[in-house]
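Please check this chain.
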Amino acid sequence: MRDRSATTALVLGLLSLPFGLLAPFAIWSGARSLWRIHVSEGSLRGAGSAAGGLATGLVGLGTLIFGTVYWFLAS
């Protein structure tokens, strides 16, 4: 059985790249999904999607922070 929040994390992570405000939700959803998959001892799948969502969420958050700092310093 596939963990549904793993797919949600991946979608939110990919959407966080252009829309950085979704990054915290992708990070939370990916971390939660990875934890649920780990605790299920093999009955849940989707660790790749959850990890991808977590990673892209972190990249989106980094981009949002960098862009905000750059905007404040450049203006």
Summary: DSSP finds three helices and no strands in the chain.
